[in-house]
Design brief:
Length: 234
């Protein structure tokens, strides 16, 4: 049996707020296997954003262990975490987080600079992933020349460019109209079908319905963890 891609054991995260300690995550155990399509849900204050930050190596736990792809990242220093983030995790944010003065191609190639690729390799790979998200004709456009949906496609391409283990998407349709949301979710379905592990953070049931597994948090604990019964075509 191969080891899970993500194994979290008794993860706790506390924050000091003045003299008070706020207990946000209260001992979470979670395993996610390679190739899963997972939605994290929960009301405001449930701990889902904190859990996402830990999964994405943007934060470290107060206690507990986090094994990502065989490496214990829970004790790593900031510079080590930055390396793991760049190599293992592709982020897609609600607000796109594109650099306004750079073209779509340059925005997508950016993570490859930190990974040490040559300029020609960066350009070639960025072109491949922009083709993958149907933006071959928009590579030289800056973000303000693109629609919201196109900007999110650029953000998805940037997330894919380093061939990460995980695509982590935080409310990826939060700033999009319903038609564009459907297009972006169809793109996530494709990405998952290509073998990527996809983790979505969302408060929308219709977006979570795309995932094959829904984990609901409440008050810093996992309230439920349900897997969809997939249709098996004979």
């Amino acid at each position: 049996m191969s080891q899970p891609l993500i194994k979290i054991t008794n993860i706790k995260r506390n924050f000091a707020l003045g003299d008070e300690i706020v207990y946000v995550l209260k001992g979470i155990d979670l395993e996610i296997n390679k190739g899963e399509y997972v939605a994290l849900m929960g009301p405001s204050g449930s701990g889902k954003s904190t859990l996402m930050n830990l999964l994405g190596c943007l934060d470290t736990p107060t206690s507990g262990s986090y094994i990502l792809n065989g490496k214990d990242v829970s004790k790593m220093k900031d510079n080590e975490l930055a390396g793991i983030r760049n190599k293992e995790i592709g982020f897609v944010f609600q607000t796109f987080n594109l650099l306004p003065r750079m073209t779509a191609l340059d925005n997508v190639a950016l993570p490859m600079i930190y990974a040490g690729y040559s300029k020609s390799d960066r350009k070639a790979r960025a072109e491949v992933v922009l083709n993958q998200v149907s933006l071959a004709d928009r590579m030289d456009h800056q973000p303000n020349q693109l629609s919201g949906g196109q900007r999110q496609r650029v953000a998805v391409a940037r997330a894919l460019v380093n061939n990460p283990s995980i695509i982590l998407a935080d409310e990826p349709t939060g700033n999009l109209d319903s038609k564009t949301s459907l297009e972006i979710m169809a793109l996530f379905n494709e990405i998952h079908a290509n073998g990527n592990t996809v983790i979505l953070v969302t408060h929308e049931e219709e977006i979570a319905a795309y995932a094959h597994r829904v984990i609901r948090l409440r008050d810093g604990m996992i309230e439920s963890d349900t897997r969809k019964k997939l249709d098996v075509k004979s």
